[in-house]
User: Fold this.
Amino acid sequence: MIHSLFLVNSSGDIFLEKHWKSVVSRSVCDYFFEAQERATEPENVPPVIPTPHHYLISVLRHRIYFVAVIQSEVPPLFVIEFLHRVVDTFQDYFGVCTEAAIKDNVVVVYELLEEMLDNGFPLATESNILKELIKPPTILRTMVNTITGSTNVGEQLPTGQLSVVPWRRTGVKYTNNEAYFDVVEEIDVIIDKSGSTITAEIQGVIDACVKLTGMPDLTLSFMNPRLLDDVSFHPCVRFKRWEAERILSFIPPDGNFRLLSYHVSSQNGYPVGYRSLVAIPVYVKHNITFREGSSQGRFDLTLGPKQTMGKGVEAVLVSSQLPRGVLNANLSASQGTYTFDPVTKMLTWDVGKINPQKLPSLKGSMSLQAGASKPDENPSINIQFKIQQMAISGLKVNRLDMYGEKYKPFKGIKYMTKAGKFQVRT
Amino acid sequence: GVSGSLQHELCSADGSAARQGDEREEGLRETAMYGCGFSANDELKEMLESNKESLKLEAMKRIIGLIAKGKNASELFPAVVKNVANKNIELKKLVYVYLVRYAEEQQDLALLSISTFQRALKDPNQLIRASALRVLSSIRVPIIVPIMMLAIKESASDMSPYVRKTSAHAIQKLYSLDPEQREHLIEVIEKLLKDKSTLVAGSVVMAFEEVCPDRIDLIHKNYRKLCNLLVDVEEWGQVVIISMLTRYARTQFTSPWQEGVSFDENNEKAFYDSDSEEKRDETETKPYMMDPDHRLLLRNTKPLLQSRNTAVVMAVAQLYWHLAPTHEVSAVTKSLVRLLRSHREVQYVVLQNIATMSIQRKGMFEPYMKSFYVRSTDPTHIKTLKLEILTNLANEANISTILREFQTYVKSQDKAFAAATIQAIGRCATNISEVTDTCLNGLVLLLSNRDETVVAESVVVIKKLLQTQPTQHSEIIKHMAKLFDKITVAMARASILWLIGEYCERVPKIAPDVLRKMAKSFTSEEDIVKLQIVNLAAKLYLTNSKQTKLLTQYILNLGKYDQNYDIRDRTRFIRQLIVPNEKSGALSKYARRILLAPKPAPLLQSAFKDRDRYQLGTLSHSLNLKASGYQELSDWPAVAPDQSVRNVEVIEPCQFVYTLNLCVVSGSGSEESDEETSDESPKSSSQSGEGSSESETDQKKEKNKKNTDSKAKSKAVNRYAVDHLGVLRPPPPPTHTRCWMLSGLAVSEPLALTPGPEAGFMTSHPSSLQVTVQPFGPVKSHELLHHMSGKGLSARYHFPRQPFLYQPSMVQLQITLTNASDQPLEGIHLGEHSPASLTLHRFSPVERLEPQASVTVSMGIDFNDSTQAANFQLCTKEAEFSVSIQPAVGELLLPASLTQADFEKEQGKLLGMNETSATITMAEGHCSSAVLNKQVRSMANLGEVITGHNNTHRFAGRTVSSGALVLVTVEKREAADATITVNTDKSVMASMLLRDLKQALASA
Assistant:
């Protein structure tokens, strides 16, 4: 399926290549570079590019293009999903997935890629299995290996590969048994000029960090499982049990994993009177005006908390792409700092925490090119923030039980809400 | 000893290898065209040849670094290959990586390593066996094809499923190296397809797709197994299997899309009224009944919509799109929309597919319209796709919302996107007549926009709109003529000129004036504008020659000497056409009709209009061009091919296949072949399908002609039959495989038992027929919970005597819950159960039960072939009640169909300890065969074995949980005496069954 893989950095250099079948010349990437040149932004490179003899399917992550070379019909999502899995694995192994990290660990990268695909077909993509086959590099292990000459490569087939629970290795032992779950929700919103909500959706995930001895069997139940109407699971979750009882029952993988992700929308499909709206945690008052004939524009922005159940809104960052005609912005922020890049016309304001008593604001004027006409469109405003200790959908975990093992694990659940694509049109 | 001598062998071989390498290197030194310095290579070579493992490892790591960078490291081959037998596993793996990379270039040297792999293929460690096969099969050296073939064949029957998986991958590698091996490889594929391991399934189907996607006949027998394994296969395998099964289903089942109800959104009304319509249809046309196997596929793929893997979700979505009945397709909508939250590349592909789907089925995505709203941060190609979908979704009800949204987009700073929005507005305007005027006015307003591209695009779209209804819009044309001077984009200028020319009679004053201006600026215009000036001149000349004759001639003269040959040609042509002279032929008479003919309005339609010719989710669909290796999705067959080819039973399929075979070879009708088979095996139950089989065989014949020549086919089939008998002994519980078919019939298509096209299928399985039909209706219902003790909730249960869908080792139970109170009961579900080892499948909770209402739910219990009671709690929202079910031993069985010969053979194996018998005096009236039959079968869920004797009745069954055979013989003696014999290795069951049978037959 996947013939070859090329890694291309942002300056257009191929810094790694790997072939699973016969070697494909790297000149095939010229077609990719052509597309890259044509694209105005790095994200605008089409993910699927046909060439006379091959097809190039690429993903862009961490400013690296992962370009897969395909020779015949294959579902493009298959390749895309796999490439993202490769990136996730690198990140898991090296902490970051940068060009430098990949170059430093080129041998491990090669060993990983060798295990992940056989003849272009995925072989082992489960992080637990890979980690048994190839141990992640740590400073300590690197030192030990240099001294003793021992290796990073496992000698036995990971038991998980053959068992009914391929995601978990056997013989796991911990002195402190703990299971942490993070409920993280991102809220995607488009708010129109008048302040009314056009769309609002919540994308939630439950990420787990489970370090438990043996073969624990966990069940996680919710106070309000009906919220979770559109869900996707880690393969470990017993689907039938969920269908029947709305309980998550699973033998967890060892370590970090994403247990489930869910989607809550304000759209149809919900019973009448049942949470028909997604709560919006912040509001924005804005007044951005350009006048015809004047070389000045006004900029006035105030943020405030809304429906946060008493939790503080933190790490607020406002950004806005101002129209091309704006030469400079002369603003003053009541708190935090703002920057304006006169080249990209990007205005960013690092607000910090919102104090409900003293609302943060950014006011002042923008100078426009003399003689230029008034911009057609007001800039839209993108906001990032975090709210700790709260899941905006109201999702609450009821309890976590463990079966199959005797010890008492330490359990913890954390909630957090973040802004996803939170956009205010002005 | 052995390893020592081998090492020696390797070393001596390496000696010559090294010499060759030296020669090569000298050659290289002369050309010196490689990037890495020789000193570095020499150092690496030294390190590789040292005695220290750590040095060797370090060298290999550096070499891998070179390979990763794309540098040539081939000259180190001799030094590297020496280390192939090294004990250090990491070093060995790196050598493998190197070997696979360069073996093709250094074939002779690569051969030296082969013996190492051949040895490793016998290693006790499965990981080592697997990796040896992986490397061996990746060495693309034609000479070793026979060795690879042998290794693949051996590994395909390895104990370890992991090694078998690797062998499936190796099949593809060998096939790409030597396509001649196809036939042999197909044999291995056939063998591996039968593998029951989930690990192997995905890989072998992949090999199938690559090597022999046309051999759909290999799938028949494995179809149900693949469907049932699917949930447990790893995610990548799931994708491959689902797309293969989609193709399979389109060749084997009939269309679930009713005739008349086409695959079109215009029929939404019919779609919503489908219930009533169906009823009407049934009386008129032949009712459609879904093949249970078709249903099985749909049912088993649906849970995968919840997968975290976007490729799996997309695969299921396309399967539903191509296979599910119209009203079920929308089941996939929510999951597809969920994928839009994933990475941008995923969004891109999913949006493309939704764009194609939304053309045919607006209703599917309309509720999720807002998910396609564009954000300013989206990449351009995502924006355009979303726009496309929004346009597809537009209808009278939502158009105002969509247009309001579009207004925001038009102002976008991304001008390419703004232009695309204008086109979208144009499409909405033509599709929805109510808003045509609104859109047109909006577009006219945009003509005064400051941005060039926006204005240009507006002009182009307005032109198209005006063409669809030119009558009342001379005002707009005038307006555009006024704007003409300000517009500089060529395409827009050309469009305006064309409009003025086309409708010159509506703007008689303005048109000549425009032409006058154009004559002035002709030379500085772009080609596309020049062409339209010539057009305008010609049209005006015809309608208003008085005012424009001179102008036209001037323009034609300019055009005659233009640099562009297109314009020169056009000018010449126009001159001949409109200016009459003696040379001009008959054509000029028709000049007016040619130039001023009413032109059909352009169709503004989606770019995704015809994309559905490709299977959704494929690369071809994404690119809108046929990718190499794309497998066409066939149309539904008008008549379904034989369904019984998918039955997995020991005898019948062989006979059936044999029947087919004869048909194919002799080319005779089905009657004849029926006779022949019955000659061969008089006890065969295959009086197979009178009506249907003829057409089926015909179809088969056709297919044979198409696919392979019939001889090869019959050979394959014969071999298959033999394999089948050989491999499946001892036979697996046939109930397991059969149950799907039966339960499918019983649960989802109860109508299937009415006489119809399925009749043929049923008669070929007399025993299973009886089971399904249940003429003896032993629906003895038992009390589970009395309403007095259940606070109004009463429950009764019975055994429907059908295999349990979800878990074949469970006995199916149906519980009828009735609310005898006057309050609604809520949340009825199963609570805790005991003993703890008991496994059961819970029924899905009943959310609410109204007073006096009752509901029947089904659950499964694995009694583990014992009559030990299963205790569990029946809970409502308020209370919990402990209940208990103790099954009669006869309910723990499922009928098995055996021929008399098999029965006797099996009985012969179950003698001695495994046989219990008793003699009884039967009650009066039980002596007749029919009654006796009925008594036995109402007591125990057994299948009758058809025998020649009147006095001996035989029954066969298998225990539900372990699948052990249970054989019962009732032999009538003189008078009312009879001997009952039970043969089974479950001795406890045997004695209990005997006791029950005695009771049933002896009592009145």
Notes: The radius of gyration of chain B is 39 Å. Chain B touches chain A through 108 residues (CB under 8 Å). Chain B has a mean pLDDT of 77. Chain B is about 55% helix and 10% strand.
